[in-house]
Amino acid sequence: LAQAKWAQGLTAAACIAPNPARFAATACNSTMSELGLGEDAMQGFIRHQVINILQPVAETIQDIQAQLEHFRKDLDLTDGRVASNKSDVEQLERDNLAQRATNKDIKSQLDKLQVEATKDSEELTRTNQDLQANKAALAKLNEKTQHNK
């Protein structure tokens, strides 16, 4: 029985294999008919062989689809992080511009304070000089007052 099935498989395989002889189709049909196999059996055999051939391809496609879905999810997560980072960077740029404007204002105020401090220092120097002159004048006045007594 096993040999008969094997022979049927070989006969069916020979029927679907390319054969340059003109009578190949007729020979296959008559051989299949002799074995009790009809068109339905031939279609079933072909279907079975096609399924056997395509099964690994289908599994590979399913694996690739699963990987693609995984990549899509990763990409969506990455897109979300990129959008968040972009928003953060834009906020940091706005903050940086505000800080620069504030720094310009502070520098301007500091420059004004520096000018005022220089003026105050010069005035303090003049005041100290006046004070020393006044002390000297007072000391002379005290001396004259002491001599006049």
Structure description:
There is one protein chain. By secondary structure, the protein is mainly α. 91% of the residues lie in helices and 0% in strands. The protein contains three helices and no strands. Helix 1 packs antiparallel against helix 2. The termini are far apart. The model is unreliable at 1-27 (pLDDT under 50).
Which regions contain 5 or more consecutive residues with pLDDT less than 50?
1-27
Radius of gyration: 53 Å
What class would the helix/strand composition place it in? mainly alpha
Query: So what's the overall shape?
Result: rod-shaped
Strands, count? 0
* Major β-sheet annotation: none
Q: What do the pLDDT scores average to? A: 82
What is the string of helix and strand elements? HHH
The first-to-last residue Cα distance is 160 Å
Strand content: under 5%
> Helix segment count?
3
* Helical fraction: over 70%
In short:
The protein has 149 residues and is mainly alpha-helical. The chain has helices at residues 2-16, 24-34, 39-148. The protein has 3 helices and no strands.
